[in-house]
Amino acid sequence: MRFAYEWHDDSGNWFRSYGNENWEFDENGLMVRRFACINDLPIKESERKYIGRLGGVRTTIRGLSELGL
To answer: Model's pTM, two decimal places?
Structure first.
């Protein structure tokens, strides 16, 4: 799976974390193995691509390619 998400630290510095993950599940559907490669990129708040309200439900999901990632 390819992913990206954005977050900020306690000082208000913004980051975009992105990378790849590989998952393996057992016969009951429980994850037994997870391999992840994650990179944190400092960004300006104006460069954010995921804008929404905290706790809100996103009704439109855009893919990483559509967001230029």
So the answer is: 0.68
* Span 2-19, pLDDT tens digits: 888 899 999 999 999 999
Q: What pLDDT band is residue 67 in, cutting at 50, 70 and 90? A: confident
- Give the fold, CATH level 3, of 1-69: Nuclear Transport Factor 2; Chain: A, (3.10.450)
Q: Which of 22, 17, 16 is nearest to 1 (CA)?
A: 22
* Residue closest to 45 by CA, chosen among 20, 9, 2, 3: 9
**Both structure tokens of 2:** 């390819």
